[in-house]
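Render this sequence as a predicted structure.
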Amino acid sequence: MRLFLSSYRFGADPAPLMSLVGKPGRVGVIAAAADAWPPSARASAVVSDVAPLRRLGFSPEEVDLRDYIGTQNGGTSGLRDRLAGFGMLWVRGGNTFVLRAQMARSGADDVLRDLLRNDSLVYAGYSAGACVMTPTLRGLDSSDDPSEVFGTCGMQPIWEGLGVVPFAIVPHHPPATPSGGEETVPLEDAAAVRRTVAALRVAGIEYCTLTDEQVIVVDGESTELM
């Protein structure tokens, strides 16, 4: 199993991702976390992720999970074939609850677990794309609105993640600052992070915080915070 989980894109350095992938090739870009956004904003979000991937030598192609919802004579098997054709999946940030719902509706949750179990590809996800791989989405409602799920997906939010890693992830954590130093994260965002951490602590759930420069790399039995 190979995972690259970050707070924001490549973190401080794309080298750990490149080491995990090896030679860059085709990469499937999943932007379902942005499905609640206006179409123009969602399209811009996809472009903003495709460009840096291309600069690293990848050949990105969007995989829209909405295309695999409610399909006949294909459904999950069609999505499995599509995803299995990539050496890496890139799952962008946005609303974690919307991403989780779209994964459930399309069958991507089960497909991804199988592909990762067989080490068929690298999963690279940032922010929502990282959080969805954990056991729980508890506390993330401090920054992501669960009510967007019903309007976008026609279902109630799912509060369990895919459980691929055994701990929760709290992205966009403010970096440590010297005594008297200024926060580098907007106060509203920092407050949301603190509320998420507090909720996880009260629930007794193991978690890992990530600044926008940090990443978690899982390679087989090894899990490393970088």
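Summary. Helices lie at 15-21, 39-55, 75-84, 96-106, 108-117, 128-131, 148-153, 187-203. Residues 178-183 have pLDDT under 50 and may be disordered.
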